[in-house]
Write a structure and sequence with these properties.
It is a multi-pass membrane protein. This protein is an alpha/beta fold. It is built from 17 helices and 14 strands.
Protein backbone atom coordinates (compact mmCIF):
# COMPACT_ATOMS: atom_id res chain seq x y z
CA UNK A 1 0.00 0.00 0.00
CA UNK A 2 2.80 2.41 0.88
CA UNK A 3 4.50 1.71 -2.47
CA UNK A 4 1.28 2.52 -4.33
CA UNK A 5 0.83 5.82 -2.48
CA UNK A 6 4.48 6.79 -2.96
CA UNK A 7 4.39 5.85 -6.64
CA UNK A 8 1.19 7.81 -7.15
CA UNK A 9 2.51 11.00 -5.52
CA UNK A 10 5.87 10.88 -7.31
CA UNK A 11 4.24 9.94 -10.61
CA UNK A 12 1.77 12.82 -10.34
CA UNK A 13 4.50 15.40 -9.66
CA UNK A 14 6.75 14.10 -12.43
CA UNK A 15 3.91 13.88 -14.94
CA UNK A 16 2.75 17.43 -14.24
CA UNK A 17 6.30 18.70 -14.73
CA UNK A 18 6.57 16.74 -17.98
CA UNK A 19 3.25 18.10 -19.25
CA UNK A 20 4.35 21.67 -18.45
CA UNK A 21 7.45 21.19 -20.58
CA UNK A 22 5.58 19.49 -23.43
CA UNK A 23 2.75 22.05 -23.51
CA UNK A 24 5.07 24.99 -22.73
CA UNK A 25 2.67 26.46 -20.19
CA UNK A 26 2.33 26.69 -16.42
CA UNK A 27 0.03 24.28 -14.59
CA UNK A 28 -1.47 25.08 -11.19
CA UNK A 29 0.09 22.31 -9.11
CA UNK A 30 -2.12 22.91 -6.07
CA UNK A 31 -5.25 22.67 -8.25
CA UNK A 32 -4.08 19.41 -9.85
CA UNK A 33 -3.29 17.90 -6.45
CA UNK A 34 -6.78 18.76 -5.16
CA UNK A 35 -8.50 17.37 -8.28
CA UNK A 36 -6.45 14.17 -8.14
CA UNK A 37 -7.25 13.68 -4.46
CA UNK A 38 -10.99 14.21 -5.00
CA UNK A 39 -10.96 11.88 -8.03
CA UNK A 40 -9.27 9.10 -6.05
CA UNK A 41 -11.73 9.48 -3.16
CA UNK A 42 -14.70 9.22 -5.54
CA UNK A 43 -13.05 6.32 -7.35
CA UNK A 44 -12.60 4.47 -4.06
CA UNK A 45 -16.24 5.05 -3.10
CA UNK A 46 -17.34 3.68 -6.49
CA UNK A 47 -15.26 0.53 -6.05
CA UNK A 48 -12.06 1.56 -7.83
CA UNK A 49 -9.01 -0.06 -6.32
CA UNK A 50 -6.15 1.62 -8.20
CA UNK A 51 -4.51 4.97 -7.56
CA UNK A 52 -5.04 7.27 -10.54
CA UNK A 53 -3.43 10.54 -11.55
CA UNK A 54 -2.92 12.72 -14.60
CA UNK A 55 -1.48 10.83 -17.58
CA UNK A 56 1.58 12.27 -19.29
CA UNK A 57 1.29 10.18 -22.46
CA UNK A 58 -2.42 10.78 -23.09
CA UNK A 59 -2.18 14.50 -22.28
CA UNK A 60 0.75 14.97 -24.67
CA UNK A 61 -0.95 12.87 -27.36
CA UNK A 62 -4.14 14.93 -27.17
CA UNK A 63 -2.12 18.14 -27.38
CA UNK A 64 -0.19 16.99 -30.44
CA UNK A 65 -3.37 15.84 -32.15
CA UNK A 66 -4.92 19.26 -31.56
CA UNK A 67 -7.49 18.03 -29.03
CA UNK A 68 -6.76 20.42 -26.19
CA UNK A 69 -10.29 21.16 -24.92
CA UNK A 70 -12.01 19.66 -21.88
CA UNK A 71 -14.33 17.67 -24.19
CA UNK A 72 -11.59 15.02 -24.39
CA UNK A 73 -11.96 14.37 -20.68
CA UNK A 74 -15.71 13.91 -21.01
CA UNK A 75 -15.24 11.44 -23.87
CA UNK A 76 -12.74 9.51 -21.77
CA UNK A 77 -15.19 9.47 -18.86
CA UNK A 78 -17.85 8.16 -21.21
CA UNK A 79 -15.67 5.25 -22.34
CA UNK A 80 -14.88 4.45 -18.71
CA UNK A 81 -18.61 4.45 -17.93
CA UNK A 82 -19.25 2.08 -20.86
CA UNK A 83 -16.59 -0.28 -19.56
CA UNK A 84 -18.04 -0.03 -16.04
CA UNK A 85 -21.65 -0.78 -16.99
CA UNK A 86 -21.16 -2.78 -20.20
CA UNK A 87 -18.28 -5.00 -19.15
CA UNK A 88 -14.78 -5.55 -20.49
CA UNK A 89 -16.17 -7.11 -23.68
CA UNK A 90 -16.79 -3.61 -25.04
CA UNK A 91 -13.03 -2.91 -25.02
CA UNK A 92 -12.48 -5.88 -27.34
CA UNK A 93 -14.29 -3.94 -30.06
CA UNK A 94 -11.40 -1.44 -30.23
CA UNK A 95 -8.69 -2.34 -32.79
CA UNK A 96 -5.62 -3.72 -30.99
CA UNK A 97 -3.35 -2.36 -33.72
CA UNK A 98 -4.59 1.18 -33.04
CA UNK A 99 -4.07 0.97 -29.29
CA UNK A 100 -0.69 -0.72 -29.64
CA UNK A 101 0.42 1.68 -32.36
CA UNK A 102 -0.41 4.75 -30.30
CA UNK A 103 1.38 3.34 -27.28
CA UNK A 104 4.43 2.44 -29.38
CA UNK A 105 4.39 5.88 -31.03
CA UNK A 106 4.34 7.72 -27.71
CA UNK A 107 7.03 5.49 -26.23
CA UNK A 108 9.36 5.93 -29.19
CA UNK A 109 8.64 9.66 -29.24
CA UNK A 110 9.68 10.05 -25.60
CA UNK A 111 12.79 7.90 -26.16
CA UNK A 112 13.85 10.05 -29.12
CA UNK A 113 13.17 13.26 -27.18
CA UNK A 114 15.14 12.25 -24.08
CA UNK A 115 17.80 9.84 -25.36
CA UNK A 116 18.57 11.21 -28.83
CA UNK A 117 17.70 14.92 -28.59
CA UNK A 118 18.88 14.92 -24.97
CA UNK A 119 22.42 14.09 -26.10
CA UNK A 120 22.56 17.48 -27.81
CA UNK A 121 20.44 19.50 -25.39
CA UNK A 122 21.46 18.20 -21.95
CA UNK A 123 24.75 18.36 -20.10
CA UNK A 124 26.69 15.11 -19.93
CA UNK A 125 25.85 14.58 -16.26
CA UNK A 126 22.12 15.19 -16.84
CA UNK A 127 22.13 12.88 -19.87
CA UNK A 128 23.84 10.17 -17.83
CA UNK A 129 21.11 10.56 -15.19
CA UNK A 130 18.31 10.22 -17.77
CA UNK A 131 19.96 7.15 -19.30
CA UNK A 132 20.42 5.59 -15.86
CA UNK A 133 16.73 6.14 -15.02
CA UNK A 134 15.60 4.56 -18.32
CA UNK A 135 17.85 1.52 -17.82
CA UNK A 136 16.76 1.15 -14.17
CA UNK A 137 13.07 1.27 -15.14
CA UNK A 138 13.69 -1.32 -17.87
CA UNK A 139 15.46 -3.76 -15.55
CA UNK A 140 13.77 -3.24 -12.16
CA UNK A 141 10.57 -1.23 -12.61
CA UNK A 142 9.18 2.31 -12.53
CA UNK A 143 9.36 2.93 -8.78
CA UNK A 144 12.87 1.51 -8.51
CA UNK A 145 13.99 3.62 -11.47
CA UNK A 146 12.59 6.78 -9.90
CA UNK A 147 14.32 6.02 -6.58
CA UNK A 148 17.65 5.41 -8.34
CA UNK A 149 17.21 8.68 -10.23
CA UNK A 150 16.51 10.64 -7.04
CA UNK A 151 19.54 9.20 -5.25
CA UNK A 152 21.92 9.87 -8.15
CA UNK A 153 20.42 13.37 -8.66
CA UNK A 154 21.06 14.23 -5.00
CA UNK A 155 24.66 13.00 -5.28
CA UNK A 156 25.22 15.08 -8.42
CA UNK A 157 23.65 18.10 -6.70
CA UNK A 158 26.02 17.81 -3.74
CA UNK A 159 29.03 17.46 -6.06
CA UNK A 160 28.04 20.47 -8.18
CA UNK A 161 27.16 22.58 -5.14
CA UNK A 162 30.51 21.89 -3.51
CA UNK A 163 32.22 23.22 -6.65
CA UNK A 164 30.35 26.53 -6.46
CA UNK A 165 32.22 29.29 -4.67
CA UNK A 166 30.73 30.02 -1.28
CA UNK A 167 32.66 33.30 -1.27
CA UNK A 168 30.75 36.02 -3.09
CA UNK A 169 33.39 38.68 -2.52
CA UNK A 170 36.65 39.15 -0.66
CA UNK A 171 38.12 42.52 0.27
CA UNK A 172 39.82 44.51 3.01
CA UNK A 173 39.53 47.92 4.65
CA UNK A 174 41.74 49.25 1.90
CA UNK A 175 38.91 48.64 -0.57
CA UNK A 176 35.92 48.87 1.77
CA UNK A 177 34.94 51.00 4.71
CA UNK A 178 32.20 51.26 7.29
CA UNK A 179 29.50 53.93 7.30
CA UNK A 180 31.41 55.87 9.95
CA UNK A 181 32.72 59.18 8.61
CA UNK A 182 36.10 59.94 10.14
CA UNK A 183 38.70 62.64 9.77
CA UNK A 184 40.98 62.56 6.74
CA UNK A 185 43.97 61.60 8.89
CA UNK A 186 42.12 58.71 10.53
CA UNK A 187 40.83 57.51 7.16
CA UNK A 188 44.36 57.51 5.72
CA UNK A 189 45.63 55.48 8.67
CA UNK A 190 42.83 52.94 8.23
CA UNK A 191 43.51 52.64 4.50
CA UNK A 192 47.25 52.26 5.13
CA UNK A 193 46.70 49.29 7.46
CA UNK A 194 43.45 48.13 5.87
CA UNK A 195 44.94 44.90 4.47
CA UNK A 196 45.16 43.57 8.03
CA UNK A 197 41.40 42.92 7.84
CA UNK A 198 40.33 40.04 5.59
CA UNK A 199 36.64 40.38 4.65
CA UNK A 200 34.76 37.42 3.17
CA UNK A 201 31.14 37.83 2.09
CA UNK A 202 29.55 34.38 1.98
CA UNK A 203 26.61 33.13 -0.08
CA UNK A 204 24.52 30.03 -0.65
CA UNK A 205 24.35 26.93 1.54
CA UNK A 206 27.19 26.04 3.87
CA UNK A 207 27.89 22.30 4.14
CA UNK A 208 31.05 20.20 4.35
CA UNK A 209 32.25 20.79 0.77
CA UNK A 210 31.76 24.56 0.68
CA UNK A 211 32.90 25.06 4.29
CA UNK A 212 36.11 23.17 3.51
CA UNK A 213 36.60 25.57 0.59
CA UNK A 214 36.22 28.47 3.06
CA UNK A 215 38.78 26.95 5.43
CA UNK A 216 41.31 26.52 2.61
CA UNK A 217 40.80 30.14 1.50
CA UNK A 218 41.47 31.54 4.99
CA UNK A 219 44.44 29.22 5.51
CA UNK A 220 46.00 30.19 2.17
CA UNK A 221 45.62 33.89 3.04
CA UNK A 222 47.32 33.36 6.40
CA UNK A 223 50.17 31.42 4.78
CA UNK A 224 50.66 33.97 1.98
CA UNK A 225 53.93 35.67 2.87
CA UNK A 226 53.73 38.12 -0.04
CA UNK A 227 50.72 39.95 1.44
CA UNK A 228 50.52 41.90 4.71
CA UNK A 229 49.72 39.79 7.74
CA UNK A 230 46.10 39.85 8.87
CA UNK A 231 44.82 40.65 12.35
CA UNK A 232 41.10 40.31 11.66
CA UNK A 233 38.96 37.88 9.66
CA UNK A 234 35.37 39.00 9.09
CA UNK A 235 32.78 36.56 7.74
CA UNK A 236 29.51 38.11 6.56
CA UNK A 237 26.57 35.66 6.55
CA UNK A 238 24.05 38.11 5.10
CA UNK A 239 23.52 36.05 1.91
CA UNK A 240 23.94 32.58 3.47
CA UNK A 241 20.82 30.43 3.09
CA UNK A 242 21.66 27.94 5.80
CA UNK A 243 24.35 26.13 7.77
CA UNK A 244 24.49 22.34 7.69
CA UNK A 245 25.85 20.33 10.61
CA UNK A 246 28.50 18.82 8.33
CA UNK A 247 30.09 22.27 7.97
CA UNK A 248 30.73 22.69 11.70
CA UNK A 249 33.94 20.63 11.69
CA UNK A 250 35.48 23.14 9.28
CA UNK A 251 34.46 26.06 11.50
CA UNK A 252 36.20 24.32 14.39
CA UNK A 253 39.33 24.12 12.22
CA UNK A 254 38.98 27.82 11.27
CA UNK A 255 38.64 28.76 14.94
CA UNK A 256 41.73 26.76 15.92
CA UNK A 257 43.72 28.20 13.00
CA UNK A 258 42.87 31.83 13.82
CA UNK A 259 43.51 31.29 17.52
CA UNK A 260 47.00 29.94 16.79
CA UNK A 261 47.76 33.09 14.76
CA UNK A 262 46.15 35.47 17.32
CA UNK A 263 43.68 36.72 14.72
CA UNK A 264 40.34 38.26 15.73
CA UNK A 265 37.35 36.37 14.31
CA UNK A 266 34.28 38.52 13.51
CA UNK A 267 30.97 36.92 12.47
CA UNK A 268 28.24 39.22 11.12
CA UNK A 269 24.58 38.81 10.11
CA UNK A 270 24.22 35.33 11.62
CA UNK A 271 20.67 34.05 12.04
CA UNK A 272 19.66 32.97 15.53
CA UNK A 273 19.44 29.34 14.39
CA UNK A 274 22.91 29.30 12.81
CA UNK A 275 24.39 31.17 15.77
CA UNK A 276 23.00 28.54 18.15
CA UNK A 277 24.51 25.76 16.01
CA UNK A 278 27.94 27.39 15.98
CA UNK A 279 27.83 28.23 19.67
CA UNK A 280 26.86 24.69 20.63
CA UNK A 281 29.29 22.78 18.40
CA UNK A 282 32.13 25.25 17.76
CA UNK A 283 32.01 27.54 20.78
CA UNK A 284 31.73 31.31 20.36
CA UNK A 285 32.65 32.40 23.89
CA UNK A 286 36.37 32.96 23.24
CA UNK A 287 37.72 36.49 23.61
CA UNK A 288 38.97 36.64 20.01
CA UNK A 289 35.51 35.80 18.58
CA UNK A 290 33.07 38.68 18.12
CA UNK A 291 29.44 38.47 17.01
CA UNK A 292 27.87 41.61 15.53
CA UNK A 293 24.51 42.26 13.94
CA UNK A 294 25.67 43.40 10.52
CA UNK A 295 28.76 43.86 8.39
CA UNK A 296 28.91 47.64 8.78
CA UNK A 297 29.09 47.39 12.58
CA UNK A 298 31.86 44.80 12.28
CA UNK A 299 33.86 47.04 9.95
CA UNK A 300 33.50 49.99 12.31
CA UNK A 301 34.72 47.84 15.22
CA UNK A 302 37.81 46.78 13.25
CA UNK A 303 38.49 50.39 12.28
CA UNK A 304 38.41 51.41 15.94
CA UNK A 305 40.86 48.65 16.83
CA UNK A 306 43.26 49.76 14.09
CA UNK A 307 43.07 53.38 15.26
CA UNK A 308 43.69 52.32 18.86
CA UNK A 309 46.89 50.61 17.74
CA UNK A 310 48.25 53.00 15.12
CA UNK A 311 46.71 56.33 16.22
CA UNK A 312 46.05 56.06 19.97
CA UNK A 313 45.35 59.79 20.36
CA UNK A 314 42.32 59.59 18.03
CA UNK A 315 39.99 59.62 21.03
CA UNK A 316 41.68 62.67 22.51
CA UNK A 317 39.44 65.71 22.19
CA UNK A 318 41.22 68.48 20.29
CA UNK A 319 40.03 72.03 19.87
CA UNK A 320 38.65 72.99 16.47
CA UNK A 321 41.54 75.40 15.97
CA UNK A 322 44.03 72.52 16.33
CA UNK A 323 41.97 70.31 14.02
CA UNK A 324 41.76 72.90 11.23
CA UNK A 325 45.47 73.70 11.44
CA UNK A 326 46.15 70.17 10.14
CA UNK A 327 44.32 70.94 6.88
CA UNK A 328 45.22 74.57 6.15
CA UNK A 329 48.64 76.01 5.28
CA UNK A 330 50.38 78.14 7.96
CA UNK A 331 49.51 81.32 6.06
CA UNK A 332 45.80 80.87 6.80
CA UNK A 333 44.53 82.71 9.87
CA UNK A 334 42.63 79.89 11.64
CA UNK A 335 41.37 82.04 14.58
CA UNK A 336 39.98 84.50 12.04
CA UNK A 337 38.19 81.65 10.25
CA UNK A 338 36.71 80.37 13.52
CA UNK A 339 35.43 83.86 14.32
CA UNK A 340 32.88 83.41 11.52
CA UNK A 341 31.57 80.20 13.13
CA UNK A 342 28.94 79.89 15.84
CA UNK A 343 29.63 77.27 18.55
CA UNK A 344 26.90 75.34 20.37
CA UNK A 345 26.36 72.06 22.24
CA UNK A 346 24.07 69.10 21.54
CA UNK A 347 22.68 66.68 24.11
CA UNK A 348 22.20 62.97 23.32
CA UNK A 349 19.03 62.55 21.28
CA UNK A 350 18.91 66.20 20.21
CA UNK A 351 18.54 66.93 16.49
CA UNK A 352 21.08 69.02 14.62
CA UNK A 353 18.55 69.46 11.80
CA UNK A 354 15.59 67.51 10.44
CA UNK A 355 14.83 65.94 7.09
CA UNK A 356 13.26 68.41 4.66
CA UNK A 357 14.52 71.55 6.40
CA UNK A 358 16.25 74.25 4.37
CA UNK A 359 20.03 73.96 4.42
CA UNK A 360 21.30 77.14 6.06
CA UNK A 361 24.99 76.21 6.29
CA UNK A 362 27.53 73.54 7.24
CA UNK A 363 28.64 72.14 10.59
CA UNK A 364 32.06 71.33 12.06
CA UNK A 365 31.93 68.50 14.61
CA UNK A 366 34.63 69.32 17.16
CA UNK A 367 33.82 66.41 19.49
CA UNK A 368 31.11 63.81 20.02
CA UNK A 369 29.21 61.66 17.55
CA UNK A 370 26.30 62.35 15.18
CA UNK A 371 24.18 59.94 13.12
CA UNK A 372 22.40 60.58 9.83
CA UNK A 373 18.84 59.22 9.99
CA UNK A 374 16.69 58.76 6.86
CA UNK A 375 12.93 58.39 7.11
CA UNK A 376 12.07 55.70 4.54
CA UNK A 377 8.46 55.14 5.64
CA UNK A 378 6.08 56.42 8.32
CA UNK A 379 7.47 55.38 11.73
CA UNK A 380 10.44 53.70 10.02
CA UNK A 381 13.94 55.16 9.83
CA UNK A 382 17.37 53.93 8.79
CA UNK A 383 20.80 55.04 9.95
CA UNK A 384 22.79 55.97 6.83
CA UNK A 385 26.01 57.26 8.34
CA UNK A 386 27.76 58.12 11.58
CA UNK A 387 30.06 61.14 11.99
CA UNK A 388 32.95 61.19 14.42
CA UNK A 389 34.83 64.25 15.67
CA UNK A 390 36.92 66.31 13.25
CA UNK A 391 34.39 65.91 10.42
CA UNK A 392 32.13 68.25 8.46
CA UNK A 393 28.39 67.80 7.90
CA UNK A 394 26.27 69.46 5.23
CA UNK A 395 28.98 70.75 2.89
CA UNK A 396 27.16 69.49 -0.23
CA UNK A 397 23.91 71.24 0.66
CA UNK A 398 25.90 74.32 1.66
CA UNK A 399 26.84 74.83 -1.98
CA UNK A 400 23.67 73.46 -3.62
CA UNK A 401 21.32 75.41 -1.29
CA UNK A 402 18.99 72.40 -1.22
CA UNK A 403 16.86 71.02 1.59
CA UNK A 404 18.29 68.40 3.92
CA UNK A 405 17.64 64.89 2.56
CA UNK A 406 17.97 63.31 6.01
CA UNK A 407 18.00 64.18 9.70
CA UNK A 408 21.08 64.33 11.93
CA UNK A 409 20.83 63.43 15.61
CA UNK A 410 23.42 63.46 18.42
CA UNK A 411 24.41 60.05 19.80
CA UNK A 412 26.32 61.59 22.69
CA UNK A 413 27.30 64.99 24.06
CA UNK A 414 28.66 66.84 21.04
CA UNK A 415 30.38 70.15 20.41
CA UNK A 416 29.47 71.69 17.04
CA UNK A 417 30.41 74.86 15.14
CA UNK A 418 27.91 76.28 12.64
CA UNK A 419 29.08 78.09 9.50
CA UNK A 420 26.05 79.81 8.00
CA UNK A 421 25.68 80.88 4.38
CA UNK A 422 25.36 84.50 5.48
CA UNK A 423 28.62 84.28 7.47
CA UNK A 424 30.37 82.79 4.45
CA UNK A 425 29.17 85.60 2.17
CA UNK A 426 30.38 88.10 4.75
CA UNK A 427 33.78 86.36 4.82
CA UNK A 428 33.97 86.57 1.02
CA UNK A 429 33.48 90.34 1.26
CA UNK A 430 35.75 90.96 4.22
CA UNK A 431 38.44 88.27 3.80
CA UNK A 432 38.54 87.12 0.15
CA UNK A 433 41.87 85.25 0.57
CA UNK A 434 40.52 83.37 3.57
CA UNK A 435 37.36 82.51 1.61
CA UNK A 436 39.48 81.25 -1.28
CA UNK A 437 41.52 79.03 1.06
CA UNK A 438 38.28 77.68 2.52
CA UNK A 439 36.99 76.87 -0.99
CA UNK A 440 40.16 74.88 -1.71
CA UNK A 441 39.80 73.05 1.60
CA UNK A 442 36.23 71.96 0.79
CA UNK A 443 37.15 70.91 -2.77
CA UNK A 444 40.04 68.80 -1.48
CA UNK A 445 37.76 67.23 1.13
CA UNK A 446 35.11 66.34 -1.47
CA UNK A 447 37.71 64.87 -3.83
CA UNK A 448 39.00 62.60 -1.05
CA UNK A 449 35.49 61.39 -0.26
CA UNK A 450 34.71 60.74 -3.94
CA UNK A 451 37.95 58.77 -4.32
CA UNK A 452 37.10 56.58 -1.33
CA UNK A 453 33.57 56.01 -2.63
CA UNK A 454 34.99 55.15 -6.05
CA UNK A 455 37.25 52.55 -4.45
CA UNK A 456 34.25 51.03 -2.66
CA UNK A 457 32.25 50.92 -5.91
CA UNK A 458 35.11 49.29 -7.82
CA UNK A 459 35.35 46.67 -5.10
CA UNK A 460 31.62 45.94 -5.37
CA UNK A 461 31.78 45.63 -9.16
CA UNK A 462 34.91 43.46 -9.20
Amino acid sequence: MFSIILLGVIGLLLNISGIEIALQKDIALNHELKITGIANILSGLMGGGLTSYVSLSRSVLNHRLGASSRVVGWFLSGFCALALFGGMSILSLLPEVLIGGLTLFLGLNFLVEWLYDGWWNLSKSDYFLVLLIVVSIGFWGLLQGIIVGFIVAMILFVIKSSRLSIIKNSSSLFHSSSHVQRSSLETKIIKKHGESLYILELQGWLFFGTANQLFNTIRNRLYDGEQPSIKFVLLDFHMVNGLDSSALINFIKIKQLLKSYSVNFILTSLTIKDQEKLDKQVGLQDDFIHLVEEKNIGLAWCEEKLLEEYYPIHKTCQLLETQLSNYFPPSVDIPKLISYLKPFKLLPGEFLFSQGQLNLGMYFLESGQLSVIKEIAPDKTKCLRTYKSETIIGEMGFYSQSNHSASVIADEHSSVYFFSSHAFKRMEREEPKLASAFHKFIVKLLIERVQYREQDMQNLLS
